[in-house]
Amino acid sequence: MNKITFLMLHLNYGGIEKQVSTLVNSLADQYEIEIISLYNILGKPFYKLDSRIKVRYIFDYGPNHKEIVQALKKFQVKKLFSELKKGLKILYTKFFRIGKIVDELDTDILISSRIEFSKQIKRKDIVVISQEHSYINTNQYKRKVKKSFKNVDYLIVMTERARELYETWFRECRERPRVVLIPNMISDYHGEGTNLHNKQIISVGRLEPVKDFTSLINVYSIIEKKHPDWCLKIIGEGSQREKLEKQILSLGLKDKVILTGRLTSDEIEHELDHSSIFLLTSKSESFSLVIVEAMAHNVPCVSYDIDVGPREIITNKEDGILVDDRNENQMAEEACMLIEDSVKRVEFGTKARKTAEKFFVSNISKEWKEFLDKLLEA
Question: By the 8 A CB rule, do 324 and 345 touch?
C-alpha cells in the first residue's frame, strides 16, 4: 500500500484542519496515511480521524505566547527563561528544521499545508504537494509564493480564480509547481436540514480580523431595527472576542447577538438546523467551507463578493446572494428580503442544498484519488 504523509501545523479547531481531516479519512481505505503535526495542542485531534491513520507530533505541546507574557508580568525569571527557550525551539523548528525532518521520512507522497513548511522541502525522490489555503493578492505575497513553492511538484488550490492567478505568477519562474484545482470538501450530509422557520441568523468562523465580525454585527444592527424578533449567533473563538463584546454592548444588542464560543461539529450542525439565514462578512477566503456546510443544511447564504471563494460557490440570486464588498446596508437589505419573503427563502435553501452536494466527500474524494493514483503510477 502506498504511503502518503501530511505535514500540518496542528490538529486543533480550524478550517484547514477540518478539511485535511475530512480528506485523510476519505483516503484511509486506499492508502497508508500518516500525519506529522508540529504542535499537540489538545492532546488529541479535534476532528475525529480514522483509526488507521497514524499521527506523530514534533512537539507534545502548542505555542507558548501566553506563558511567556504571564511569566513576564509576574517577574518569574526562571519560568520566563524556560518559556523563552521553549519558544525559540518552536520557532527554529517551524521555520528552519522542518526540512531536515522531511528528509528522514519514508513516504511516497508528501502533502504540506503550510507555506513556511513548503519553503523548506527539497526532496526530489518523492512527490511533493502543497495545499495553499491562503489567498492574498499583493506583490509581497506574490514574491513569497514564488520563492516558497519552487521545490514543490504540485500546488493544490481551491478555486478557479486562485488557479489563474498562481499560474500567472509562476510563468516567469524557471522552477515552479504545476497548479491543480481541487475544491475543498465537506462530509456527506443526508439529514433533513433546517425548515427555515426559526428566526435565527448564523455565522461561523474564528473571531479574528480577517473574518470581520465587526461588520457582521453592524449589519445585524440594521436588520434588528426592522426585525427585532430575529437573533444572531456567531460560532467561533478568537482574539477579537472582547472587542466584539464591547461592540455588542455599545449597540444595545446584548440579548440579541450571541457569541457561542467554539462548538463541536455536531453542535454546529445543530445550530445550522435551527437557523434560517447565514451571513459571511470575511475580508478574504481561500474557499469557504462554512458556506458549503450551511448550504448543505438548506440555509441560504448572503456573502460579501470578495475576490475568491463565495462567488465560486454561490450563484447569485439563485441559491444565495452576493453583495458588494463591505456594503453593510446592501447586506442588511438582502437579509431583510429573505426574512420577509419566506417563499424566496425556501427556494434559495432548496437550491443551496443541491449546490452543496457537489462538494461532498463522495464527489471530491474521487478527484483526489484519481490525481494521486496518476502520480503513483508515473
Answer: no
